[in-house]
Amino acid sequence: MKGLMQDWPLLVHRVLDHAARWHGEQEIVSRSVEGPIHRQTYRDLDRRARALASAAKKHLKAKKGSVIATMAWNGYRHMEIWYGLMGLGAVVHTLNPRLFAEQLIYIINHAEDQWIFTDLSFVPIFEKLQDKLPKVKG
């Protein structure tokens, strides 16, 4: 008996699809790393996440199953990255900037991350670690 069950898989990017379709003009408000308040709609987020997925597919050769880490502050950029990569079918996990270098190295290598998306404020951390992350392409 199917009843009222959905006939499609419950995937994370479907949450954004729903929000963009039914609540497209609803504003998402966050503060950027640089300080100012940033406003965008769910429709804008969806458009930018899809553009990021397309660019990752074209330029990074990311695809379903690619393992990608993020280390970013909670803001609009991280949401765009997260939804975009999830929509692509990548395996995405967040890294905690409060961890010690040895812990980050272990997590990144154990996950076999191919790419790391990060805010500029965390670039110095990865510059110090890059020699110990053999599978990371960039």
What this model shows, in words?
A hairpin with a 5-residue loop joins strand 1 (27-31) and strand 2. Helix content is 43%, strand content 17%. The protein is globular. The strands form two sheets. Strands 4-3-5 form a three-stranded parallel β-sheet, covered by helices on one side. It has a two-stranded antiparallel sheet with strand order 1-2. The protein has 138 residues and is an alpha/beta fold. It has helices at residues 13-22, 42-59, 76-88, 101-111, 123-129, and strands spanning 27-31, 37-41, 67-71, 91-94, 115-118. The model has no long low-confidence stretch (mean pLDDT 94). Helix 2 (42-59) packs across helix 3. It contains five helices and five strands. The protein has a single domain, classed as Rossmann fold (3-Layer(aba) Sandwich).
